[in-house]
Amino acid sequence: MRYLLPILGLVALIAVLVAIKFTQISSLMNMGKEMAKAGPPPETVGTATAQTQAWEGTLSAVGSITAAKGVVVSNDAPGVVSHIDFESGAVVRQGQTLVDLDTSVERAQLASSRAKMDLATLTVKRSRALVKSNTISQSQADNDESLLKTTTTDANALSAQIDRKIVRAPFSGRLGIREINLGQYLNSGTRITVLEAIDTVYVDFTLPQQRLAEIKIGMPIRVTIEGADVAPRDGTIAAVDPTIDTTTRTIRVRAAVPNKEETLRPGMFANVSVVLPDQGSLVAVPSTSLVHASYGDSVFVVEDKKDASGAGGAPPGDKPAKVARQQFVRVGASRGDFVAIVDGISAGQDIVSAGAFKLRNGSAVTVNNEIKVDPQLSPHPDNR
Asked: Which domains are delineated in the chain?
C-alpha cells in the first residue's frame, strides 16, 4: 500500500506533463496552419508609375574624335637647330616662327650675291646712259642686263633657301610635345611636333546602308563620352561619304562639333546619336523595374489583393493589401534611366521599381517610397 500512492502520484504528474505538451504542440500546429494560410510576410518595395513619354527618334553609333585641322610639323630643308621658339602645348598663331635652323653659310653667300647684284645694277645704269650716246655697243649693254638678272636670281634663290630653314605654324592652333632639341641635326621631314586646331572637332562614325535615306547634311547629332566628366555636346552632320563600304555595307558620316572649351580631344571614343526629325509617344518605365530571365523580361505590377470572389479583400475602413503580379513585357529602346515597353503594360500602372529581384508572382508587398531615386532621361551623376 505504501508503494501504491507514490506510483499513482507519478502517473498523475506524467499525465499532466503530457497534457501540457499536447496543448503546446497543438497550439504551434494551429499557428503554423494559420501562417501557411496567410502566406509569407509582405516584402517592402519601391514603386513607380509607367509613363507616356515623347522620345525623339535617334540613330545610335560609335565614333572617333578627330581634329578639324591637324598636321605633323616638320622641317623642309636639313640643318642644325639654332633656335626653338615654342613650348610644348603652346597655342600659336598662323605664320608664327617655331624653329630656326642654322643659316650662317647661306647668309654669307647671300651677302656676296647681293654685293654682286648692287655692282651689276650700277653697271646697267652706266650702260644705258652710254648706249644713248653711242659710246658702247648695244651688245655690251645687253650683257650687263643679263648679268644683273643672273645676280638677282641668285640672291632670290639664296633668300628662298634661308626661308626654307625657318619652320612656321601653317595655321593657328595648339602644339603638341616638342620632339627636338637645340643643336640637333635634322634631316628633311624630321618630326618636330604636332599642331591641331580643336576649337571645332570632327566625329567620324558609320551607319548601316539602310539608313542612308534618313541622313541629310545639317542634321543635329549628340555626342557623349562614356565614363568622362564631359557633358553631352551637340553638333551637325557636315559630310556623308558618297560610297558604301563593300565589306561592312556601312556608310561613313562626319559631324562637326564646336569645342571652344577643348574638352573633346582627337582620338577619343564617342557615342553618337543622330537626332531624327520625327518623335513618337511610348510607355516608359525605370530600367530598375525590369527582371531579366532566360524565358523573357518581366515587371511586377502592384495591385490590390482580391479575395476568392475577385473583390477587394480588405475590411471596411482599412487600406487594401497589395500584391505584386508578374507581367511579361516586350522591351524596346532605352534612354537614360528609362526603358521603353513595346507591349505588356499600359501608362498609369504602378510597378515595382526597387526590390523586384526578391519577388515572385502573387507576393504580398508593402510600398515604401520614402527613399527613392528619381530616374532621368539624361542622367549626369557626379564623378567620384
From this structure: 40-55+281-367 (2.40.420.20), 59-67+201-278 (2.40.30.170), 76-101+166-189 (2.40.50.100), 103-164 (1.10.287)
